[in-house]
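Q: Could you write out the predicted structure for this multi-component system? I'm mainly interested in how the pieces pack against one another.
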Amino acid sequence: MTTLQPAPARSGDPLSGNPLSATPPAALLTGPWGSARIVSVGAVLPAHGIAHADQLLHPGEPTDFDPVAVLGRKGTRYKDRATLLGVAAAAQALDAAAVDRTVPRSDIGLLVASCYGNLSAVCENAELIDRAGVSSLSPLALPNASSNVVATEISIRRKLQGVVLTVCNGHASGWAALRWGMSLLSAGRSSSVLVVAVEAPSPHEQQLRGAAAPLVDGAVAVLLTARDAPAVPVRSPGGAPGDETPLPGHELAAVHGLLVIARAAARARETGSAVTCGGGPGEGDWAVLP
Amino acid sequence: MTPAPPVGTAICGLGSVTSIGGSPDACFDALLHGRTGLAPLRVFDPDRYNVTSAYEVDDRPDRTDRPGRAGDLLVTAVRQAAEQAGLDDLTDVPVLVGTGLREQRTAELAWAARTTVDPDRLHFGGVLGDELGARDVHTFSNACSASLYALALGADLVEGGAPDVVVAGVDVLTASMVGLLDRVHADPPDRVRPFDSDRKGVVLGEGAAAVVLSRRRPALARLSAVALGCDAFHVTAPDPLGIERTIRAGHEASGVDAVDVDVVYAHGTGTVLNDQAEAQALALVFGNGDCGPAIAAVKGATGHTSGGSGLFSLVMAVLGLQHGRVPGISGLRAVHQAARGLGVSALPRQLPGHSVVQVNAFGFGGLNAVAMLQRADTR
């Protein structure tokens, strides 16, 4: 489990403290839309040997993702893969920081980025209707027809009662979600935001995308807080360039922005030096300072 | 003496297209006259569904569906709002789009035909760039409160210094959503009946709505706050206390008390659960002694236009403020017990000079949004 700072001690009323301000400074994320502290990271990219965020720079052997083993049996049936991957990555980041035990839940924003997330469920159910009418559908599939199913599942499981947003901005969705996370922090709508990006391969997205590189299978989560984040000039503060094409040969789609930032945070922590990373087209320069 | 600055953010342009009209004025007129957009399913095969009707925009004379329809409706509404505001160049203007189903119908059609889709046609950046030159487009897929969530983010941008921001909402029917809703209805609803004791559930509608928010242009009305919250309670069952919390947050953020609110545009989907929970929340905030605000609910006329519905209600609310009118609730016959004592009415009302309006939108997953409007001259 990767934490970029020690998890705060739990004491007293779990919802009344503000230990985020008492802990040592975490990595600083700065970009065209502002600055924030990276409190913790979650990552689940099983085919790439990343079961936990601490494997982001040092992946192990490819593994399977067993949602029951990771999340427990309760509530995993009838959930699509993108939802389960997103929940798992979110849980890593939240558990590492214990933030939902220490900050009022209405202060924690949640942004989920996905381009293809629920399209498999959408196309599959539409095809079932074409073939055999609505009586052939499972009513339990209803939540999967809504594009915000991943965010809904995370917010309900973790009782996050702040702003909950799903960003579907194509392949740039991850970068856009980071932008809007910064915006929620600077507008004071949230004191912390959990930004999650997820994609999951399916025959449906393969057909819709045509003969392209295989879609990444996985999710990355980054927990940001505005607390103690100094204003940093928008222009790149220097430092080594980050890894802007992680997992070559794969289409990262919405996961791209989050994976770049998560790896930059891990590298900044490991090396003690700033790491710069260009965003997607029009997304400007980002950097992570240790 | 220097007058106090106007409250909130100026709303300077309106756009809407739904099953009841192709412009904000046409839609508002239809609401006042009790016209609905309900019609037999226009392109879906009725043999495949139990539900027989919907509130679709009638733009497919050949009864054949086509990709990109949500984008087409969106372009119409955004163009209307931009023209009214005098905003002739959208190149660097942020355009925030709230949607429940984005272009999922396009994905369904492509899958059925085994063709491909440009990923920029699954959201609205591509079409708004091509048709209107907008380069800073953001699509938020946030269920049925999506467009009011987008409105909140847009208001934050203006507050943070952006001169102009366009906020829009849109949805068209998808086979998967119509079918899965159909599957969960024991008895298919024939139409939407908000707050009615005989309501049977939701019938989907189509439409787009848009507004221009600005720091520098003359206001049609003022947006004084948008409160957001999440029940984090249940996927499809709303929580009255979560709704109440968001309404009270909206009042506090806009500096009004419950007694100041003249009109509420309810979410009012005509489902058993929503209307019960919403009526309970309204009674908790306003009391149920017949002295609270007038309650409007547009979905009896437009159907549930999903992610675009909140902003459509808001566009109608701005016209209501300007004309001193409140539309009646189409489809309401016998008021449900939970809504008795609230100001619901099937008939339109004259309310000249009303000045504080609340607009509710609640989404799948307990996503609550409450927008507060005031007259353009409020200080």
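A: Regarding packing and overall arrangement: Residues 81-97 of chain A form the longest helix (17 residues).
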